[in-house]
Amino acid sequence: MSVSPPPTTPQSATNAPRGALAGAPTPNLWRRMACWLYEGMLMFGVVFIAGYLFGTLSQTRNAMDNRHALQAFLFVVFGIYFTWFWAKGQTLAQKTWHIRVVGTAGQPISQPRALLRYVLSWLWFLPPLAAIAPFSLSGGESAVIVLGWVAIWALLSRFHPTRQFWHDALAGTRLVHYEIPKK
């Protein structure tokens, strides 16, 4: 009589053994960019709630009043949002697209590592914003420059040995394809 192993239950990456996702494949660029766009749409809700909270607490009546304070507040709110979810493994958009953030060895990342990844992820936007700051460009021209840089930054991942985004390489993190095993 043979004894079969007990049934396994799905594990999340945070409960998975250390390095369990070390060999997980990198999602392709289209999948990661679709996740990125979906994340941007979800951030509208975060911005709405944070903006409402900021406007209420600061008694701001005009959107241009306290603009820099609002931007700093949103930077902190985004940092809390992403650091919290990345330390748990994935945001809602990443969960939808079956993508997880892990360390280079496949282990879950710590909150300080997630915070480093958040700060480095601003490489998606800061270079073009710094480049257009001294000029009086129209909104359309600015959008073309920012979107052009985003496309270049995304395509640069093709030159990374494991096709990771460069801010992930600098932060010591990886994006991996992850699905919960079926029962």
TrEMBL record:
<feature type="domain" description="RDD">
    <location>
        <begin position="26"/>
        <end position="172"/>
    </location>
</feature>
<keyword id="KW-0472">Membrane</keyword>
<dbReference type="InterPro" id="IPR010432">
    <property type="entry name" value="RDD"/>
</dbReference>
<dbReference type="Pfam" id="PF06271">
    <property type="entry name" value="RDD"/>
</dbReference>
<protein>
    <submittedName>
        <fullName>RDD family protein</fullName>
    </submittedName>
</protein>
<feature type="transmembrane region" description="Helical">
    <location>
        <begin position="69"/>
        <end position="87"/>
    </location>
</feature>
<dbReference type="InterPro" id="IPR051791">
    <property type="entry name" value="Pra-immunoreactive"/>
</dbReference>
<keyword id="KW-1003">Cell membrane</keyword>
<feature type="region of interest" description="Disordered">
    <location>
        <begin position="1"/>
        <end position="20"/>
    </location>
</feature>
<feature type="transmembrane region" description="Helical">
    <location>
        <begin position="36"/>
        <end position="57"/>
    </location>
</feature>
<keyword id="KW-0812">Transmembrane</keyword>
<keyword id="KW-1133">Transmembrane helix</keyword>
<feature type="transmembrane region" description="Helical">
    <location>
        <begin position="129"/>
        <end position="156"/>
    </location>
</feature>
